């Protein structure tokens, strides 16, 4: 873990504690540029952690404070995601794969945060999950499946064919336009999916719901 670069862009958690971890890509050319913006008081944006291209993690905001990374959106019916989450910015312009060493760093950091705050794999989400139609990061090139295989995110796969809308609500997607919700779900769980809603979307969403239950049972909830 690399040294810290304190950001002034944070505040009180408003009586909440971290129950989510939100993953972002920086959308900038390199980590240095992203760090400068995340630590700039005029930008009024920050995250708790920045993952460099080589996998090192830099601390920007103490985890007990409210960083300004999530913006408008909600998850599982709860808004003010900033107060309820820890934000991780991953240095990537958004147009290329995430290097293996960087994914190693993401996985290592996630394990530590999840252990410190008692957050299960169902609490690890993308910015695109909580803000469908507004955000697409960490994008279709992010290796969610690797995190799922290591117990650090929800699994995707096959399951019975049940109504998609109900499944997406149970997973946590906010009640926005149906096309935006489907696009956000596909971005994370079926990035190759195209066109109108299909049976494969419904099977995959039902499996994700089932994996949420399995994750909670495994955590003794």
Task: Provide a quick synopsis of the model.
The protein has 221 residues and is α/β, with parallel strands linked by helices. Helices cover 36% and strands 11% of the residues.
**What is the architecture of the domain at 10-155 at the second tier of CATH?**
3-Layer(aba) Sandwich
What's the rounded overall pLDDT mean? Answer: 93
- Tell me the name of the CATH homologous superfamily of the domain at 10-155: Peptidoglycan recognition protein-like
Secondary-structure content class: alpha/beta
SSE map:
Elements: E1 10-11, E2 20-25, H1 31-38, E3 49-51, E4 57-59, E5 66-67, H2 81-84, E6 85-90, H3 100-117, E7 124-126, H4 127-130, H5 144-149, H6 164-171, H7 178-189, H8 199-218
Parallel strand pairs: 2-6, 2-7, 3-6
Antiparallel strand pairs: 1-5, 3-4
């Amino acid at each position: 873990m690399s040294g810290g670069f304190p950001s002034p862009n944070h505040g009180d958690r408003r009586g909440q504690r971290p129950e989510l971890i939100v993953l972002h890509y920086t959308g900038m050319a390199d980590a240095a540029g992203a760090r400068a913006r995340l630590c700039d008081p005029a930008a009024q944006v920050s995250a708790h952690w920045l993952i460099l291209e080589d996998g090192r993690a830099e601390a920007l905001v103490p985890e007990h404070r409210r960083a300004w990374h999530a913006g408008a959106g909600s998850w599982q019916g709860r808004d003010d995601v900033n107060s309820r989450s820890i934000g991780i910015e991953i240095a990537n312009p958004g147009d290329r794969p995430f290097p293996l060493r960087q994914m190693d760093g993401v996985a290592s950091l996630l394990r530590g945060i999840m252990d410190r705050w008692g957050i299960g794999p169902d609490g690890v989400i993308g910015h695109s999950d909580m803000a469908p139609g507004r955000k697409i990061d960490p994008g279709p090139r992010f290796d969610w499946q690797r995190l799922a295989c290591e117990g650090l995110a929800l699994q995707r796969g096959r399951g019975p064919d049940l109504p998609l809308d109900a499944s997406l609500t149970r997973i946590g997607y906010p009640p926005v336009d149906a096309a935006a919700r489907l696009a956000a779900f596909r971005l994370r769980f079926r990035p190759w999916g195209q066109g109108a809603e299909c049976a494969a979307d419904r099977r995959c969403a039902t499996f994700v719901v089932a994996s949420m239950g399995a994750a909670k049972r495994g955590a003794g909830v």
